[in-house]
Specification:
Number of strands: 18
Structural class: alpha/beta
Strand order of the largest sheet: 2-1-3-4-6-5
Shape: globular
Radius of gyration: 24 Å
Largest sheet: 6 strands, parallel
Helix content: 40-55%
Number of helices: 22
C-alpha cells in the first residue's frame, strides 16, 4: 500500500462519498487510488467549482466535503471556495498534489508553498512528509473541519511521498472517531440569563447559523413559543424558525434599515442564539452599544467592542435553551413585534399578482415560493438578487435556503446546486443567480449534464453588477463601470445540453418554472428583472429608518 492508497482508505473511513476536482500530474497516484475505491470522483470544469461543491456538501450534511486539485494554478483556483467554507462555517477538506520533496528547496516549475498559502484560510494546513503519518493527518483534518465552528482543512501531498510504500505497523491503521461529549451550560449563567429575560419588556431573539449547524431549530422554536419571544434571523439562519410562525419577524442583513431592524431597535434585550459576528456585523445593529445582550452558543463569542454580552451561556444550544426556558414564564404577548411582522408580510404580498415587465424581483420570489415545496432547496448566489431572496423568500425549514454571507462569494450557486442534487436527488434544487455570478461558474453546467443532476438555474438578468450599481446610485445618484453585455443564455444552455428558457412575459414565469423542474436535464431560465425596484425599496426603507430616529 502506498501513501495515496492509504489516504483514500482514510477518506473512506471518514465516510466520504464524493471527491470533487480535476486530475493533474502531481495527483496521479491519488486519482488511481480513488478509481479503485468506493468514493465517486466528480470531475469538474474548474477547481473553484469543485471547492464550492465541497463547500455546499459540507453545509448541507454537516460532514466535510472534499475537493482535490493538482499543485500550482490548480491549488490557487481552490482558494476562493476554501475561504468561503472556512468563513461560512462549512466543513471542507482540500487536498492537492505537490512537487517532489527533492525539488522544494529550488525554484521549480509550478511550485508554491501551499501549506503557507492555505494557512490563513483554513483551520489546519499540513503537508504529509512521511507515509506512516497519513492516517493521523487525515483524521486531524476532519476533526478540525467538522468541530465547532466548522471550517476548512488542507492536506498537501508531494508526489514522491504519494508513491512511497507505507511500512507495516500503526501507520496503516484506520483511526477511530471520538464523539465530543455533550457540553451543558453552568447553572449560574442559566439563572442569570433567565433573570434578564424575566426583567425585559421587549426581549428579542437574534438567531444565527450556529443554531442551524447544531440542529437547534426545534429547541429554538419551543423556546420562542413558550416564552412569546419574537425572532429575527441572519441570512444564513433562514428557516430555523418557520416564516409562518407568528414569532418570526424576518431576516436581517440587507444594506437598508428594514422591518427586522425596526424590531431590533425596539428590543431592550437581544438574546443572540448561535449568532456569529461574521454573518451580520454588530455595528449594523448595535452601533451605539446600547443593547443588553445574552450570548447563547456552543462556544464563546468573538471579541468585538460593539458585541459585549452581559451573560454568555455556553454549551449545547438546545440544552441551553431548554434549561433557560424552565426558569422563565411567558413574556407578555409581543404585540409590538407582531405589528412589525404584519407590516412586512403586507409589503411582500403586494407583488403576488404583479404582471408588469420586466419582472419585479418581488414577483420572482413569490413565484419561486409557489413552485418549491417546504423541503426543496434554493441556493442563492451573491448580488442584488441575494438581498431580495434574503428579505422576501419565506422558509419553513433550516437548510432550505443556502446563502453565503460570511465570505459572500459570487459564483457559488451553480456548482453548489450540483452538490445539493447529488445529496438530495429527489428534491427540487433551484440555483438563483445574477447574470454576473452565473458566468463565473457556468462551465459546471457541463458537469451537471454529464453526471445527471437535473436542477434549475434562474438568472436575474439586468446586464450589470446589480448590487454595486444599487449602492452607487444610492450613495452618488449615478453608476459607473458596472454594466456589461451577455451571451444568449438560452443558446448557451442548449450548447451545454441543458434546456433553455427566456421569460418574455411575467405571466410565463410560473409555468416555465414548473416545466423546467419536469426536465430530465438541467434547465436555465433567463429572466429579465426590473431593478428599478432596488432604489424604490431604498427610498421606502429610508423613510422607515427616519421614523426610528
Amino acid at each position: 500500500m502506498n501513501t495515496a492508497e492509504l489516504l483514500v482508505r482514510c477518506l473512506e473511513n471518514e465516510g466520504v462519498r464524493f471527491v470533487f476536482g480535476i486530475p493533474g500530474e502531481e495527483n496521479l497516484e491519488i486519482m488511481k487510488a480513488l478509481h479503485h475505491s468506493k468514493i465517486r470522483f466528480i470531475t469538474t470544469r474548474h477547481e473553484q467549482g469543485a471547492a464550492f461543491m465541497a463547500d455546499v456538501y459540507g453545509r448541507l450534511t454537516g460532514k466535510a466535503g472534499v475537493c482535490l486539485s493538482t499543485l500550482g494554478p490548480g491549488a490557487t483556483n481552490l482558494v476562493t471556495g476554501v475561504a468561503d467554507a472556512n468563513s461560512d462555517g462549512a466543513p471542507l477538506i482540500a487536498i492537492t498534489g505537490q512537487v517532489g520533496t527533492e525539488r522544494m528547496h529550488l525554484t521549480s516549475h509550478q511550485y508554491l508553498d501551499l501549506v503557507g498559502m492555505f494557512e490563513p484560510i483554513t483551520k489546519r494546513s499540513k503537508q504529509i512528509v512521511r507515509p506512516d503519518t497519513t492516517n493521523e493527518i487525515v483524521r486531524i483534518a476532519f476533526k478540525y473541519a467538522e468541530s465547532e465552528k466548522p471550517g476548512a482543512s488542507y492536506i498537501d501531498l508531494p508526489c514522491d511521498i504519494a508513491a512511497m510504500e507505507v511500512p507495516e505497523g500503526p501507520g496503516r491503521l484506520m483511526l477511530t472517531h471520538h464523539r465530543a461529549a455533550l457540553e451543558l451550560p453552568d447553572e449560574d449563567s442559566v439563572a442569570q440569563a433567565a433573570s434578564m429575560i424575566r426583567e425585559a419588556k421587549h426581549p428579542l431573539i437574534l438567531a444565527g447559523h450556529s443554531a442551524v449547524r447544531n440542529n437547534a431549530s426545534g429547541a429554538l422554536r419551543m423556546f420562542a413559543d413558550k416564552l412569546s419571544v419574537p425572532v429575527v434571523t441572519t441570512m444564513m439562519a433562514k428557516g430555523v424558525v418557520p416564516d409562518s410562525d407568528q414569532n418570526c419577524v424576518g431576516t436581517i442583513g440587507i444594506p437598508e434599515t428594514d422591518y427586522p431592524d425596526k424590531a431590533l431597535a425596539q428590543a431592550d434585550l437581544v438574546i443572540a442564539v448561535g449568532y456569529d459576528i461574521v454573518e451580520f456585523a454588530p455595528r449594523k445593529w448595535n452601533g451605539d452599544s446600547s443593547h443588553r445582550i445574552i450570548h447563547i452558543d456552543e462556544r464563546a463569542t468573538h471579541v468585538n467592542k460593539l458585541y459585549q454580552p452581559e451573560i454568555e451561556v455556553i454549551g449545547d444550544i438546545s440544552a441551553c435553551l431548554e434549561k433557560i426556558a424552565e426558569q422563565c414564564s411567558p413574556c407578555p404577548e409581543p404585540l409590538w413585534a407582531y405589528n412589525i411582522r404584519r407590516e412586512r408580510l403586507e409589503d411582500a404580498g403586494r407583488f403576488t399578482d404583479d404582471v408588469s415587465y420586466p419582472v419585479k424581483p418581488q414577483k420572482v420570489i413569490s413565484d419561486i415560493r409557489r413552485v418549491l415545496a417546504d423541503d426543496d432547496i434554493l441556493l442563492c448566489d451573491v448580488g442584488a438578487h441575494k438581498m431580495w431572496v434574503a428579505r422576501d423568500y419565506p422558509c419553513e425549514e433550516p437548510k432550505t435556503c443556502i446563502i453565503s454571507n460570511g465570505f459572500a462569494t459570487m459564483g457559488i450557486a451553480v456548482p453548489g446546486a450540483v452538490a445539493a442534487k447529488l445529496i438530495y436527488p429527489d428534491k427540487k434544487i433551484l440555483a438563483v443567480t445574477g447574470d454576473g455570478g452565473f458566468l463565473m461558474n457556468c462551465q459546471e453546467l457541463e458537469t451537471a449534464v454529464r453526471i445527471g443532476t437535473n436542477f434549475v438555474t434562474l438568472i436575474f438578468h439586468d446586464g450589470s453588477y446589480g448590487l454595486i450599481k444599487w449602492k452607487q446610485e444610492n450613495r452618488y445618484h449615478e453608476s459607473y463601470d458596472v454594466d456589461f453585455g451577455n451571451p444568449d443564455f438560452v443558446k448557451l444552455a442548449e450548447s451545454f445540453g441543458c434546456k433553455g428558457y427566456r421569460i418574455s412575459r411575467t405571466e410565463d414565469l410560473l409555468p416555465v418554472l414548473e416545466d423546467a423542474f419536469r426536465q430530465k436535464v438541467p434547465s436555465v431560465i433567463d429572466c429579465p428583472v426590473d431593478y428599478r425596484e432596488n432604489l424604490k425599496l431604498a427610498e421606502q426603507l429610508q423613510a422607515l429608518s427616519a421614523s426610528l430616529r
